Amino acid sequence: MTQHTYLVVMAGGIGSRFWPFSRTNHPKQFHDVLGVGRSMLQLTVDRFAGICPPENVFVVTNRDYKELVQQHLPDLPADQILGEPIGRNTAPCIAYASYCIAKRDPQAVIVVSPADHAVLREEEFRHIISQAVDVARTHEVLITLGIQPSRPDTGYGYIQYIDEEASSLPNGLKKVKTFTEKPNLELAQMFLQSGDFLWNSGLFVWRADVIVQAFHQYLSDIAEVFDDGQEQLGTAQEEDFITEAYSRCRNISIDYGIMEKADNVFVLPADFGWSDLGTWDSLHRMGRRDENNNVIDGDAILYDTTECVIKTPSERLVVVQGLDGYIIAEYDNVLLICKRTEEQRVKEFVADVKAKKGVGYN
Q1: Quick count: other Cβ atoms within 10 Å of Cβ 10?
Q2: Which residues, in sequence order, are CB contacts of 59 under 8 Å at separation 6+?
Q3: Cβ(305)–Cβ(320) below 8 Å
Q4: Nearest 5 degrees, angle CA 146-CA 150-CA 151?
Q5: pLDDT tens for each residue of 69-90
Q6: What SS3 state is found at 242?
Q7: Is the dihedral of CA 72, 73, 78, 83 positive or negative?
């Protein structure tokens, strides 16, 4: 049944928390963040090998990045790269892809994945995704993957589930009770202790007809926009229609617009070495560390240096002495040196740089 399984990769974000490595003209999904010779976008598509055929892979991105997507995925046909004229969060992005796929294959099961996540145990990942696909194929459900939390992280959203032993659905799915956006530390600690909260991975699985119906029920304004232009999808008129459609769509996430409101939302608990590589600190957790807990990608010699992330151009030798817990990141015309504990200020740095130095540095 893999011919009816589709992948939608959301690859339109700028990733400003990963500045200066992630820039407006070259966001992090097009970088080899992990230093393994493959970009985040390439790794995302790679890990779905065997789950869906290449002809069923769609990438939704900003129109400015369509050429970059083509460079990174040269075998992907141009009509499977969906270009957004402006960013409108995840709901319009998912609506665009879902309506395109539903028109092409009414039996489609869609897996939605961000382009900038890391997965350590890919075989386990494929097993979990396949379980979710099997359930979605035969049930009218909206499935999200929830990651077993290992620490009270304030950078992730959380999903609380109802722990019913006699679930009506197979494969260990749990009924979702609540969604909570990034909590403070005290709340995150309570979530961890309660045992019925999972990290919100942003990975979704559903049938095309089920998610389109959910748009009609919970985001009827967006559904109306895409209903009006359904005939133009997959034709020469698609780009003009999407330009007009996005001007009518509000900026709203799929979580807030549908998942928090629908009564057929289930979560599949999972643990496959997952990380949302959204920040420098997440790279420190996922990267290969040396004997002093430093993650190094570049040509560096370190003295008395511990707990650092160093990501610099390979053609530049970097010598570091006496730092503990710092980010040292250079890309193009910017060098960032920042305490890892202060990494949440990176967005503030980007805004200040834009205000004081102009747009050439963001």
Answers
A1: 23
A2: 8, 9, 11, 41, 69, 73, 76, 80, 81, 82, 115
A3: yes
A4: 115
A5: 999 999 999 999 999 999 999 9
A6: helix
A7: negative
Assigned token pair, 90: 């995840």
For the record, the structure tokens of 333 come out as 């015309």
Q: Are residues 128 and 178 in contact, defined by beta-carbon separation less than 8 angstroms? A: no
- The SS3 assignment for 138 reads helix
Helix (H, G, I), strand (E, B) or coil at 114: strand
How far apart CA 2 and CA 108 sit, in angstroms, is 9
The tally of CA atoms less than 13 A away on the side-chain side of residue 296 is 17
Contacts (Cβ under 8 Å, ≥6 apart) of 328 = 308, 309, 310, 311, 312, 318, 320, 335, 336, 337
Residue of 236, 257, 186 lying closest to 79 (CA atoms) = 236
- Residue 349: how many CA atoms within 13 Å on its side-chain side? 17
DSSP string, 260-324: TT-SSEEEEEE-SSEEE--SHHHHHHHSPB-TTS-EEESEEEEES-BS-EEE--TTSEEEEES-B
pLDDT digits (tens, 9 = 90+) for 7-56: 999 999 888 888 998 988 889 999 988 888 999 999 999 999 999 999 99
CA–centroid distance for 166 within its chain: 32
Say what the pTM is: 0.92
Q: Where are the beta strands (DSSP E) in the chain?
A: 5-10, 57-62, 81-84, 109-114, 117-119, 142-147, 158-162, 174-180, 197-207, 265-270, 274-276, 295-297, 299-303, 309-311, 317-321, 326-331, 334-339
Q: Is 53 helix (H, G, I), strand (E, B) or coil?
A: coil
Label residues 222-251 b or e (16+ Cβ within 10 Å = b). bbebbeebeebbeeeebeebbeebbeebee
